[in-house]
Amino acid sequence: MTEQATADVQAEVQKGSARPKKEHSKRGGARKKNMQPENGSREDDDMDAEDEVNTEESVFVMPGDLIGTTEEFRAGNGTFVNVADIHSLNTGYVKVNRKSRTISVVPQTSIPPEIVEGDVIVGSVVNMRESVALVEVGAIKGKGEREFQTNGAAAIHVSNVKDSYVKNLGQEFSLSDVVKAKVINTQNMRLTTDGKDLGVMKAYCSRCHSPMDKDNNRLKCPECGRIEKRKLSSDYGTGIF
Where is region (Disordered) located (predicted)? Predict the structure, then answer.
C-alpha cells in the first residue's frame, strides 16, 4: 500500500466514513440503522443495536498500515500499537465494533491455517532480549492470512538473523517492527530472517516513532533525520507479503 493510500485509510477511519454501505442483521438481509421494530418494543430496539455491532468495514489494508489511533479506538485482533497509533498486523479488512469502539483487521478465509516448518509468516516484534527477538505472528503467507492461535510469541535467535555474524541484535530489529520470517521449528516456534526477502518490512524511528524510509541499505526518519540500521527485507515499504 502506498503512503497516499495509507493516508486515505487513516482519513476514512478518523472521519468515520469507512463504513459499509449497508448493515446486516443476524437474521439476514439489510437493516436500516434507525428502523423501528413493528411492535415498538424496547427489547427489539436493543436487539437491533446488537445486530449493528461487529459490521465489517470496506477498507482493505496490508501489514503495517495505519488504521487509527488509541484516542479513537481500542486495538483489537490483527493489530498492534506503536506509541498512540494502531497499525494492521494482517492483510485483510478493517472492522470496527461501534459499541465497544474496538478496531481490528479480519482476514478473509474459512479454514483456520496451521503453521508448519517452511511457512513464511508476518508479525510484529513485541519484545527484545540480548540474543532473541520475540515476534507476535499475525499471518501465514499463502494460507488465507487468517488469525490463529499460537502458544506464545515466536523467536528469532541472533544466530538466525542472517548468514553473517550479528554483534548487536538491537541493530537488526526494534520494538514494533513488522517482520517477514520463515518458520524453522514449530515445537518451540523458531524463526529465521536469513534470506533476501526476509527481514523487517516496516520500521519506526526509535527517537520520534515515525515510519522510516529506506535509504539504500539503511533507514532514515523523514521527520527527525535519524539514521538507523535493520535486517531489511527486499520488500521493505512495499506492503508485499
Answer: 1-53
